[in-house]
Amino acid sequence: MIRGFLLLSIGASLFASSDYVPFSKFSKEKQVEYNFIKIEKNSNEKIPEVKKIKKTQIRNYKKANEANLIKKSQIRKQISQNTVNIKNSEAIKEYKKENILNTNIKNTQDTFNKNFSITPRLTYSYMQVNGYHSGKVDLKDEDNVVIPEISIEYKNNIVKVEGFSTKTFYDNVVIGGEDLYTKASLYKLSYLYKYQNAKFGLAYNRYKIKWNYLYSGFYFYGDDKQNFPSAELHLNNSDENLKVEYGLSYGRNSDVKYAYEYYITLGYKIFKNDDLVIQAGYKNRTIDNDGSKFEFAGPTLTLSSTF
Q: What's the superkingdom here (predicted)?
């Protein structure tokens, strides 16, 4: 009924329109398109078959089971353990390198400390300063003298510095009964080589003397300086807490006829490793400078320490 109504409506509409097209003029396809007629199916018409999808079997597929899961877990654990072992091995190598480096540094420091030492000495001497001039004048006076000394030793090589100065007054020795004042100093820089209980080498000496006196109401001044080399030999013997040292040196130059030194001391080691030693002895230094000879000699008391 509805379809008939639609047909009548469409027909009336088309009739009223100037564009009216008779039904007979519609093609079969248009009639089907506008649902005027139905398509009758042909039972003999074949419908194309849908191709079946060929099933492909997945080979080597193993269903997960408990044994496989345990095996995989063990493999992961082994890989993790190997990784930890590698890291630990690298850490151990680094530690060993650092330990070896620290050990080498420590051994180097220990070796250096063992071969290196410093020995300061401080000597007091009640020194007689005797002067002789061409056999005409004999000068005799005493002075309290402090003699500092320091030795630096590395392996068998020793560098030593020492020196002293004196002030003396000679009464009524100048012609006319005048007095003579002198000031003398002697400094020495030595290089010594140590072999067993002996030390030998060379030294550079610097000798200086000044004098002044009053004559006929006038002051007269004079001085003399001499630099000369000397050969050095020093020996020592130790027995438990006792220590004996003795030695000599000899030098000269074009103006210094000769300059010699000799000494002997007996020491007591307060500590067996020579950390602190007290010594008593005698020392003589004599310099003949162009006919004017001075002798610096007297007993000595020395305190020394090695570190």
A: Bacteria
